[in-house]
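Anyone up for a design puzzle?
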């Protein structure tokens, strides 16, 4: 589901009315004529229309440099290219937009790639960005499910229990 549908559903469920999209190079979402500032952190290739899409991949940083695509090929970077609207932004270091201006922030499968300290810093920075009443939607993997599989493998004396767990958690 596109992140904008999440916010739209929340607003409609609250009886707030319609959320409208204005297409174009400076696309934005508006709600009752008010411009919505929607932030997608760690977007990768999942770019939402009308959202400010950020990623902190080193390859994105390299791609955005002058001659970055050539440099990326020289250092053996993947053929994967970020879409033009994706901005480099490190949520661990600082909020991605001005304090108190984001109506919604979305992060899917980002925090599990960070240390505990960096994850806490990222969450603090997200809440700094949010406007009063702003919404933060966070999606992380289901560790309990993976742990049950691991314990089941152990109960069956599986030689691969640890390897299967690491693979399922993409570690």
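Challenge accepted. My sequence:
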């Amino acid at each position: 589901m596109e992140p904008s549908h999440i916010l739209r559903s929340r607003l409609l469920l609250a009886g707030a009315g319609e959320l409208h999209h204005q297409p174009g190079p400076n696309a934005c979402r508006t709600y009752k004529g008010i411009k919505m500032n929607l932030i997608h952190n760690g977007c990768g290739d999942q770019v939402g229309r009308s959202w400010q899409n950020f990623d902190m991949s080193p390859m994105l940083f390299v791609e955005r440099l002058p001659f970055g695509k050539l440099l990326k090929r020289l250092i053996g970077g993947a053929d994967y290219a970020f879409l033009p609207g994706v901005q480099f932004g490190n949520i661990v270091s600082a909020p991605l937009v001005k304090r108190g201006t984001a109506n919604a922030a979305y992060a899917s499968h980002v925090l599990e790639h960070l240390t505990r300290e960096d994850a806490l810093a990222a969450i603090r920075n997200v809440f700094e960005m949010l406007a009063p009443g702003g919404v933060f939607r966070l999606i992380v993997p289901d560790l309990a499910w993976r742990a049950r599989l691991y314990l089941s493998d152990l109960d069956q004396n599986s030689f691969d229990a640890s390897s299967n767990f690491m693979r399922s958690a993409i570690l």
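A detail worth pointing out: The chain has a mean pLDDT of 78.
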